[in-house]
């Protein structure tokens, strides 16, 4: 393929920069795996921006989502990262999903939803259970607004229950996480290339 694919990580940690974030560590590992396939990579830490509540593309009054939205629209692959809190995705992740809801009414020149032909990978970290539940929510939400999910398109890590170890504190990447990251990245690139060459049909 002549055109380089691009990937954007949206990190929905609750920790503003420059605080260390387990979501950021795992997300950058996914981006590194994508870069290994020749994909150009970029990232956003959503909590660093004033993303106003709402379900419109622009909520006005200093809303920073419109500029972030342009970066989403420019990317072929989205890596959507969230930590686990109380067994749920973060409030920041929910805010981003709500803003993506606006894309349901946005269409391209052929009348297709504007996020068609884009691929999404989900990433979940936490020192408590909840990854499967959160993945189900992310898959449904991201698919609803137009993203396509590759086979085995989620990378997650759950720490031991009732303990305090975070992913960022691990001395090495667990083999299962590394293998899942490699598979998710390869499948996402494969799917993105196919969609780039042959787009979804218009209704």
TrEMBL record:
Domain of life: Bacteria
Gene Ontology terms, MF aspect: oxidoreductase activity
All residue ranges annotated as the NADPH-dependent FMN reductase-like domain in the record: 18-157
Pfam families referenced in this protein's UniProt entry, alphabetically: FMN_red
Sections of the chain in a coiled coil: none
Protein name as it appears in the record: Multimeric flavodoxin WrbA
Naturally occurring in which organism (per UniProt): Microbacterium ginsengiterrae
InterPro entries for this protein: Flavoprotein-like_sf, FMN_Rdtase-like_dom
């Amino acid at each position: 393929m002549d055109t380089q694919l691009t990937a954007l990580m949206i990190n929905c940690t609750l920790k503003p920069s420059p605080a260390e974030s387990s979501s950021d560590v795992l997300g950058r590992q996914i981006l590194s795996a994508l870069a290994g396939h020749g994909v150009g990579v970029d990232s956003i830490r959503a909590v660093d921006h004033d993303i106003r509540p709402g379900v419109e593309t622009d909520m006005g009054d200093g809303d920073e989502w419109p500029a972030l939205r342009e970066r989403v629209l420019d990317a072929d692959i989205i890596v959507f990262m969230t930590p686990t809190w109380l067994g749920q995705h973060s409030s920041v992740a929910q805010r981003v999903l709500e803003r993506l809801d606006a894309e349901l009414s946005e269409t391209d020149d052929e009348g297709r939803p504007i996020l068609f032909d884009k691929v999404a990978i989900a990433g979940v970290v936490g020192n408590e259970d909840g990854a499967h539940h959160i993945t189900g929510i992310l898959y449904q939400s991201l698919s609803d607004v137009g993203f396509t999910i590759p086979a085995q398109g989620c990378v997650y890590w759950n720490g031991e229950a009732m303990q305090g170890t975070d992913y960022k504190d691990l001395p090495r990447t667990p083999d299962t996480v590394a293998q899942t990251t490699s598979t998710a990245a390869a499948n996402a690139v494969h799917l993105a290339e196919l969609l780039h060459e042959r787009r979804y049909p218009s209704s």
